[in-house]
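User: Quick sanity check before I run a bigger batch. Here is a single chain. Can you write out its predicted 3D structure?
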Amino acid sequence: MTEKALRLGTRRSKLAMAQSGQVADAVSQVTGRPVELVEITTYGDVSREQLAQIGGTGVFVAALREALLRGEVDFAVHSLKDLPTARHEGLVVAAVPEREDPRDVVVARDARKLTDLPRGARIGTGAPRRMAQLNAYARTHGMEIETVPIRGNVDTRIGYVRSGELDAVVLAAAGLNRVGRSDEVTDFLSVDTVLPAPGQGALAIECAADNASLIAALGELDDPFTRVAVTAERSLLAALEAGCSAPVGALADLLADGQTVKEMRLRGVVGTTDGSTLVQLSTTGPVPETHEAALAFGRELATEMLAQGAAGLMGERAH
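Assistant: Done. Predicted structure follows.
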């Protein structure tokens, strides 16, 4: 008798289906059970409003979590950057698999790089974080650009460039890699130019907190280095009291000496959307050994950023 299939709750977008499909294969391998995808429509998928207006974090997550709590699905896959920083009663993130490329990328007309864009170039992005950093970069490098707020899936966004409506769009490298469209990237943005969203490129596999056997099985897919890095990044975000509509970038990377990982560096940035003011700081220390230590790592950098005036820049802060 074959074991009953595990039900994986996923959003319906092409990207969500692609990343859920990859997780389904991995879960099938570690559990020996078939995994079926259960498509769930979320408010973030059907609303046409700007993400910053509809509450940012959580709009893609709530419906999946409700399905988990009702027992309609056994586990769910989220893009970690969409997940609210507050813990959810009754649910647990059983695994954070190894992270994809966390960088942002440019898809521009005529295969141009950011620095080759024409004067007055119109660059589309839905993220205040990207706008703040792109505008700051343009200011310090004598470029003239206009950032244009856009929404929609990968096809829609790249379509604005193909149609000539925009000169370029900025997207997450991980998303394009997962849907097999990384060949359309015309420029990879260094994290020194644009720091990614906290948790960008990482996935969270969530299930009911009382399902011990499933938590143990999914735990096989957990990457401890990715988990400690994203925990520190999200702790920084939470301590800045920022919803994902606030212009906060953060990235923790592990610094290795040969094969041994010695230290972790955490960088954070917050700025006004026009790029006129940025608070950008970093800290380096031993790799946190515990979840609590990773949380403290993020909180400490956030405290320094707040002391440097970050609070006044959080105009779009979620209340």
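The first helix runs from residue 14 to 31.

User: Great, the batch can go ahead then.
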